[in-house]
Amino acid sequence: MPVYNPPLRDMQFVMHEVLNVSAEFQSMPQHAEVDAETINAVLEEAGKFASQVIFPLNISGDTEGCTLDKTTHEVKTPTGFKAAYKTYVEGGWAALSCDPAYGGQGLPLVVNQCLYEMMNSANQAWTMYPGLTHGAYAALHTYGTDAQKDTYLPKMTSGEWTGTMCLTEPHCGTDLGLMRTKAEPLADGTYKITGNKIFISAGEHDMADNIIHLVLARLPDAPPGIKGVSLFIVPKFHVKADGSLGERNGIYCGGLEHKMGIHGNATAQIVIDGAIGTMVGQPNKGMQAMFVMMNAARLGVGNQSLGLTEVAYQNALAYAKDRIQMRSLTGPKAKDKPADPIIVHPDVRRMLLTAKAYAEGGRALAIYSSVLLEKAHNHPDEKVRKDSDEMLSLLTPITKAFLTDNGYNAATMCQQVFGGHGYIKEWGMEQFVRDARINMIYEGTNTIQSLDLLGRKVLGNNGATLKKFGKLVGALVMEEGVNEKMAEFINPLAVLGEQITKFTTEIGFKGLQNADEVGAAAVDYLRVAGHLVFGYFWARMAQVALREIAAGNTDPFYVAKLQTARFYFAKLFPETATLMRTARAGSKVLMDTDAALA
Amino acid sequence: MPVYNPPLRDMQFVMHEVLNVSAEFQSMPQHAEVDAETINAVLEEAGKFASQVIFPLNISGDTEGCTLDKTTHEVKTPTGFKAAYKTYVEGGWAALSCDPAYGGQGLPLVVNQCLYEMMNSANQAWTMYPGLTHGAYAALHTYGTDAQKDTYLPKMTSGEWTGTMCLTEPHCGTDLGLMRTKAEPLADGTYKITGNKIFISAGEHDMADNIIHLVLARLPDAPPGIKGVSLFIVPKFHVKADGSLGERNGIYCGGLEHKMGIHGNATAQIVIDGAIGTMVGQPNKGMQAMFVMMNAARLGVGNQSLGLTEVAYQNALAYAKDRIQMRSLTGPKAKDKPADPIIVHPDVRRMLLTAKAYAEGGRALAIYSSVLLEKAHNHPDEKVRKDSDEMLSLLTPITKAFLTDNGYNAATMCQQVFGGHGYIKEWGMEQFVRDARINMIYEGTNTIQSLDLLGRKVLGNNGATLKKFGKLVGALVMEEGVNEKMAEFINPLAVLGEQITKFTTEIGFKGLQNADEVGAAAVDYLRVAGHLVFGYFWARMAQVALREIAAGNTDPFYVAKLQTARFYFAKLFPETATLMRTARAGSKVLMDTDAALA
């Protein structure tokens, strides 16, 4: 059976020793009192919920899956899912970082970030049920009317109701402008909505009393394309004036997808058959609110793969210490045993350390991003809000694509450590790979993320935001450039910081002549940017570790951190050499291929 | 539903235009009459068998899986598998390249190679039932007594009986020296065998009349470790003197594994409960015969991933042309449609061309290897036999590991082309990924392959065999070095050819001081060697294409080949830059990590 130990120590390290989040919170009135002790205490309990309540349901949920009653259109989730959700709601976990105005606990988002990392490690399929609610909550919180907020947010905050995002249709995934679902205005100000949605995660289930679908649809007079899309709240059950549940609305599950993974989550085909909904935000401006959901979801998907990377790593490490097979190339190590544990082999260590370096680098980025999101919403200084939002917009596609590509590779490597046993369901490793696979696809494929990063977030403002990140890198280089002990971390980072500026300008110029040059370079570019970001955080983590060691701290945690940082810079970061070369190969080798792709 | 079109044209190109296999066969008496027409005609029919008989059973076989009757220990294969196998046997496909002395058709191995590529594309799980027989056949053909050969080979040649390789035990996979299965000699010269084997592919099924298990076990007085392992034939049913089937032997299926993929193949736990067997070869020399099976299996596993790469590519290409979504970055291409087909996007082309370049490069290597195997067995000149065997021994771990790593990546990319639909079972893409995953693990993990390549095949003879391959590269560079049109292919190949010599020497010297340096570099090294081999074949393929075009041939096949060669050298080959850098990072960053991996 797989194991999972919440990585509380590493979370504490990133939050308190590297990023000093409490200092950030002191400038925000609503969080000024939140100290490290409070955060740590909450996360310790959160870790127990993840590891003790939902982790034991991960394999069984995958094996059992969800079932649809085609008569009632009700979905039964795997055994134990509903009870675990009840525990979640009763524990107040749904409300952790929600607005106290609607019953939330008002804790900083970083706490929710860490809760979700652990829940994703424990059970991604289960975690998507509450997880989807947060995006819907955010969209309503930002764009809902007071009446809508009063009706829906308290129950979504408590977790009694969950939310969904109903975007995709059979013929339109990436290209939402092709959407056909229709919304007709009714005399009472509501809308009658008709259409078919697919791939709706947590789209139907038996875990909550009501499901609040946020549905993209077109008004009768809507302009074509993406500028004619509006957003609607379409609850599964109507909500009466007193807040109690009324009649069933005309929105139901018409089928469940058979998927590679996340079997425990109901991926629903949703039939909307004259359902009644209310509009969120302005007519034909649905994409604004949709992007509030989508950006939350993209960070959430990166966090899913962070969770899977961590749990896959923990299990592969345990196996590599336990499994004896062959002798070390340098002579027997476990002389009392008939063979050595496989962790003596350099390549087994490479696979393990790859996962570890990706998990810990990803955790630093994810926690940093959650602080940016906090500041973007809650900082009293408008400039800080704006700057934080801008930086987060740069880091969002990197978090989504880089963490999910890395997560799939890491899960695959951790599975490889198990040899043949990794291919067998009972060990749990193959499920991590299957679950991790969806994260590269949904909420915008990783190709879409790369175009968002390079086309919109970087070239779209002439590299201004990237330069701001570059300043952080530059400041660290200035600070540590003469510290010999930091040279192995700072030097490659400094080089990449300079290279990426030139690299970006180059692609920008080529892109002006031919937009396909941007598309041809984007995926490679995103990974280069990902390593700039990871390199920055790994250097900062190494900096803290070196300082602690210099100060006489003998906690082996810091030695471990340095070893992993060294591995990262020596074995993973150099990927940038090839990526810049292949990106520079340009678009011709891709586009001048009609005969090859005939 | 997925599609599959046998890539006959490309096989013909490699066999007849690049490698000129018929000229090779003329020097071998038994094949001197085999011309291109004969080969092509057989493969056309083979392609029909693969695409029409077993391809339609691929998804259904995965969904249904195998079932074990725990009372009778009999395994039921998925619906249609048994009937398809009957068609296979009746069509004579089992006997294609087998020895005419035992009823085989005696066609060159290259024909069998191409048959199996197509069957692997069509249905890897099904193909493993007949596929495992070839390794057992080869071991018996080489090491069996005349009596053993007369008893077993005719029925294995016809396909009436299938074979297995019973190596792995719960506590020993890679490290066969830990094996516990016991063989006690009996007075009549047979052996009574007792033990437990796991992960036995095609270990039990209802498709053939008898199953010939080749079982590794230990004699009572055997020395410890790998030098005390012997090989035995243990048939499911005893075979009477007249060749008819006798009593059930004490070897049966105790359980089936629940796996990530290849659900249609029965991966059996095999209980050997006092079964009677006869020895193959000499006592305690079982590993010799085992390696005949194993080398065949390793080439076969590379071929499995070649097949999956091809079929995944074909489906992704069809989808990319059909699916409309978004507009080209350079403006609308399909102006009559609401969106452009996604093949207009550079990154979609990158994913498709990656799979195509891996498939076609892999096909060239696999066909070349099958000709080497032919020459190693059947060439009248002993030196040619020896040289061919030596070169094949170098290329075997490359074929196994490089093709299977590439195949998994390619299948993952092809799945990505489908967006969300790639994650849904009905489209078939996720199955290709799940099936491809095992190929990196079984018959020696890819890490083991890399140690075999670098440690044994390269450094083990001071790079002598690698230098022989280098001479082929050098000859091509000499031949085409001044041809401007070949420069884009020849220049990077020539550079890598020089780099790899230095790189190998460097690792060799470091390895003398510290054997872990070899283990630390091996996986990166194998991929570099893989690109040297692929680069060589891609340059040769481009050479033929350029000559045909220069000669006025207007077949777009040659333009396609050139475009794919260009893509390969521009976008895939440059991976070697990073690989050499990370390999040079050495073992310290991996081994000095005890705190990190505590």
From TrEMBL, chains A, B:
Keyword set, alphabetical order: FAD, Flavoprotein, Oxidoreductase
Reactions performed catalytically: 3-(methylsulfanyl)propanoyl-CoA + oxidized [electron-transfer flavoprotein] + H(+) = 3-(methylsulfanyl)acryloyl-CoA + reduced [electron-transfer flavoprotein]
Molecular function in Gene Ontology: flavin adenine dinucleotide binding; oxidoreductase activity, acting on the CH-CH group of donors
Protein name: 3-methylmercaptopropionyl-CoA dehydrogenase
The enzyme's E.C. designation: 1.3.99.41
Pfam families found in the cross-reference section: Acyl-CoA_dh_1 (PF00441), Acyl-CoA_dh_C (PF12806), Acyl-CoA_dh_M (PF02770), Acyl-CoA_dh_N (PF02771)
SUPFAM superfamilies, A to Z: Acyl-CoA dehydrogenase C-terminal domain-like (SSF47203), Acyl-CoA dehydrogenase NM domain-like (SSF56645)
Every Acyl-CoA oxidase/dehydrogenase middle domain range: 165-273
Protein family per UniProt: Belongs to the acyl-CoA dehydrogenase family.
Enzyme class label: oxidoreductase
CC cofactor: FAD
Residues annotated as domain Acetyl-CoA dehydrogenase-like C-terminal: 483-593
Residues covered by the Acyl-CoA dehydrogenase/oxidase N-terminal domain: 82-160
Function as written in the Swiss-Prot or TrEMBL entry: Involved in the assimilation of dimethylsulphoniopropionate (DMSP), an important compound in the fixation of carbon in marine phytoplankton, by mediating the conversion of 3-(methylthio)propanoyl-CoA (MMPA-CoA) to 3-(methylthio)acryloyl-CoA (MTA-CoA).
Organism of this sequence: Hydrogenophaga taeniospiralis CCUG 15921
Keyword Oxidoreductase (UniProt): yes
Keyword Flavoprotein appears in the UniProt entry: yes
PANTHER family: ACYL-COA DEHYDROGENASE, BROAD-SPECIFICITY LINEAR ACYL-COA DEHYDROGENASE FADE5
InterPro entries, sorted: Acyl-CoA_dh-like_C_dom, Acyl-CoA_Oxase/DH_mid-dom, Acyl-CoA_Oxase/DH_mid-dom_sf, AcylCo_DH-like_C, AcylCo_DH/oxidase_C, AcylCoA_DH/ox_N, AcylCoA_DH/ox_N_sf, AcylCoA_DH/oxidase_NM_dom_sf
Domain Acyl-CoA dehydrogenase/oxidase C-terminal: residue ranges: 284-451
